[in-house]
Structure formats: structure tokens, C-alpha cells
């Protein structure tokens, strides 16, 4: 479960913020909630081109966007009435985790897609540091392996989807698109525009069969 704290406003001067936090309206509040998936926010993609007039596709490490859940990174939210900050931290790690990489942004006129490539390992992703300190001792297994990766290719309105799936019996990866199934090297999975990922918690007696 993630937890979030949200001051009602976020004035810039430290002295003013400290004074406002004495007011009950601006005091931090902690809320615990369950989740179906974790949304990972991508940094804004640059608009510049390289010397060959080709659009530069930015890249970001998975752990950089996971920092949203480290308990100290603040994210600003705006409504028509107020601005507020939230901090998130995980309090429980389930057997399976779903990441939704936020590639699409909607406005009143159209949908924009962020093409940033997320660099991620497909095995041995340890999420212990994203747990609150008081619950770390209760989690003996905090390492995850990727078992499925959904990719969106192309423009938001004209794109298509592909799925990378791990075959547990052989440890091999396969790519599925409509009725077409082909094998794929694990190294190629990390080059895709990942959209939704499913991770499986590794138990102590499990061995790594993915070979990557």
C-alpha cells in the first residue's frame, strides 16, 4: 500500500511555509490506501533534434521514476481551487506488482504521447528502499523479476500494442502481436516503449532461469 502526505499549499519561502504549517488547514496529513498498480511518471520529453534533424529519444532509468515512492520526493498536484504536494511510500509489497508508465497525457484537444525509453533490468529489481523503515523487517523478499511487458508503438491515435511474455518452463521470452508469436532476446525488451509491466516477487527457493 502507498501512503501520501499532502500539505494544502506549498509557498516557496521556508519561513512562510513553517508558519503556515502551524495552521490546521496547512498541516500535513497521512493517508494509507490500497493500489491495483503503481503509476510511474516520465520526465517531460525534450523537443530538440540532433544534427541530422532526427528527433532525439530521451532515456530514463527505472529507478529514477521509482523515486516517486521513496517517501521524500514531492510531487505537485493542482486543482482549480488549490495546489498541494504529495509524498508516497510503499508499506507493503504484494506477490505481483504492476507498473503503469504514464506515456499519455490528455487535454481538451488531443492526446500526447511521451516517447521516453525506460532503461530497466528484467531481473533482480530490489524495492526494499521504497518501504518505510518500520515495515522493512516484515518483508524478507523484496526482489522482483519481470514476467510481462506491454509495449505501445506509434502515435496515440494510430499506434499498436505488443506483449513480451516470459515462459517460465524454459526461461525464454516471446513477443506476441495479434496471432503472431516470435521469440525475442531479453536485451531487446529494454529497448521498447514499455507501457505496462508485470513483476513477480522472487521467493527464496526460486532460481533465475531468465538468463539475462
UniProtKB/TrEMBL annotation:
The gene is Usp39_1. It comes from Melanocharis versteri (Fan-tailed berrypecker). SUPFAM superfamilies: Cysteine proteinases (SSF54001). Keywords: Hydrolase. GO terms for molecular function: cysteine-type deubiquitinase activity. Residues 1-202 form the USP domain. One of its GO terms (biological process) is protein deubiquitination. It catalyses: Thiol-dependent hydrolysis of ester, thioester, amide, peptide and isopeptide bonds formed by the C-terminal Gly of ubiquitin (a 76-residue protein attached to proteins as an intracellular targeting signal). PANTHER family: U4_U6.U5 TRI-SNRNP-ASSOCIATED PROTEIN 2 (PTHR21646:SF16), UBIQUITIN CARBOXYL-TERMINAL HYDROLASE (PTHR21646). This is ubiquitinyl hydrolase 1. Signal peptide: none annotated. The keyword Hydrolase applies. Its EC number is 3.4.19.12. The keyword Acetylation does not apply.
Amino acid at each position: 500500500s502507498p501512503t501520501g502526505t499532502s500539505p494544502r499549499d506549498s509557498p516557496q519561502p521556508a519561513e512562510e511555509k513553517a508558519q503556515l504549517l502551524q495552521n490546521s488547514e496547512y498541516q500535513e496529513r497521512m493517508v494509507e490506501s490500497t493500489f491495483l498498480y503503481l503509476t510511474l511518471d516520465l520526465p517531460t520529453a525534450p523537443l530538440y533534434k540532433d544534427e541530422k534533424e532526427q528527433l532525439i529519444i530521451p532515456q530514463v532509468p527505472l529507478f529514477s521514476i521509482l523515486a516517486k515512492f521513496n517517501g521524500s520526493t514531492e510531487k505537485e498536484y493542482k486543482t482549480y481551487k488549490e495546489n498541494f504536494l504529495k509524498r508516497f511510500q510503499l508499506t507493503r509489497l504484494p506477490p505481483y506488482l504492476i507498473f503503469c508508465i504514464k506515456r499519455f497525457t490528455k487535454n481538451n484537444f488531443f492526446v500526447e504521447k511521451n516517447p521516453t525509453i525506460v532503461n530497466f533490468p528484467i531481473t533482480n529489481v530490489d524495492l526494499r528502499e521504497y518501504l518505510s523503515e518500520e515495515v522493512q523487517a516484515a518483508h524478507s523478499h523484496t526482489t522482483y523479476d519481470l514476467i510481462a511487458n506491454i509495449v505501445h508503438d506509434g502515435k496515440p491515435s494510430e499506434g499498436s500494442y505488443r506483449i513480451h511474455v516470459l515462459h517460465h518452463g524454459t526461461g525464454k521470452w516471446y513477443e506476441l502481436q495479434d496471432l503472431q508469436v516470435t521469440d525475442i532476446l531479453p536485451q531487446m525488451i529494454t529497448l521498447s516503449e514499455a507501457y505496462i509491466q508485470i513483476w513477480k516477487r522472487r521467493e527464496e527457493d526460486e532460481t533465475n532461469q531468465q538468463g539475462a
